[in-house]
Write a structure and sequence with these properties.
The protein has 8 helices and 7 strands. By secondary structure, it is an alpha/beta fold. Strand 2, helix 2 and strand 3 form a beta-alpha-beta unit.
Length: 268
């Protein structure tokens, strides 16, 4: 019997911030769909190793790499690791992100800078390193219609202002225009560039908001579809965007948010 072709068979993906949350979900899904995965982490080596083991247990291939995406040499090392270990690169998932929340009047330059470094400069550095590689590789029609795929994991807060999170919203708004500009600029190389903007996805980043009843209620009141999302909700879309099924999609942001961006307070 012919083995069913997996959707990302023999592709190679770098997933930043893949030791937990949405990045973990995307790494697992891409591994399951046949991609070799570079699992990037910053602080949590054990969690990254666990993701690798899960991918391998499901018959996939993965390698872990500690790197700070906001550092130029580290971002390059991520892409070099994909080439060194798997021989090529097809997909970059710019996922790594942090929050350092503070009321604006109290926000320190350090809080501002840290979030800009990881959430905006990191995606820039990784995208640049990946795009250079994609241009070098070119289109190989037997593999894919595109020379490469870059997917930015942004946030609904690239359009929804969020008091107490000026550093985060500024970075995500920046990611939105970075994504669109790259899509425009790199299309001639057949590099597709897109964004996924998640709403409230249940991960450690917002644990303090969903773990208590009161916070959960507030969160749900902002989500017309009536449930908090899972990393798999995002991973499903990321896998699709990375396949040739999405070949005519570039420069798009897909809001995967249960309707959070629909101004739910106007729904009554
Ligand atoms: C933030 C989460 C928040 C969600 C919806 C995300 O970008 O990281 O903390 O729950 O947006 O507001």
């Amino acid at each position: 019997m012919k083995k069913e072709q997996k959707r990302l068979q023999d592709k190679v993906a770098v997933v930043t911030g893949a030791s937990s949350g949405i990045g973990r979900g995307i790494a697992l899904a891409m591994g399951r769909e046949g991609a070799g995965v570079v699992i990037n982490y910053h602080g949590h080596q054990e969690s990254a190793e666990e993701v690798k083991q899960l991918i391998e247990a499901a018959g996939g291939q993965a390698v872990t790499l500690r790197a700070d995406v906001g550092q130029e040499a580290d971002a390059q090392l991520l892409i070099d690791t994909a080439i060194g270990h798997f021989g090529r690169l097809d997909i970059l998932i710019n996922n790594a992100g942090i929050q350092r929340d503070a009321a604006f009047l109290e926000m320190t330059l350090e809080q501002w800078q840290k979030v800009i470094d990881t959430n905006l400069t990191g995606p820039f550095l990784c995208a640049r390193a990946a795009a250079r590689e994609f241009v070098k590789q070119g289109v190989q029609p037997e593999r894919s219609k595109a020379a490469g795929n870059i997917i930015f994991i942004s946030s609904v807060h690239d359009v929804i202002p969020w008091a107490g999170h000026a550093n985060y919203t500024a970075a995500k708004g920046g990611v939105q225009m970075l994504m669109k500009t790259l899509a425009q600029e790199l299309a001639k190389y057949k590099i597709r560039v897109n964004g996924i903007s998640p709403g409230a996805i249940k991960t450690h980043i917002n644990q303090q908001d969903w773990e208590l009843e009161e916070g959960r209620k507030k969160m749900l009141s902002q989500i017309p579809y009536g449930r908090i999302g899972n990393p798999e909700d995002i991973a499903n879309v990321a896998v699709w965007l990375a396949t040739d099924e999405a070949d005519y999609v570039t420069g798009a942001t897909i809001y995967v948010d249960g309707g959070m961006t629909l101004y739910p307070s106007f729904g009554e």
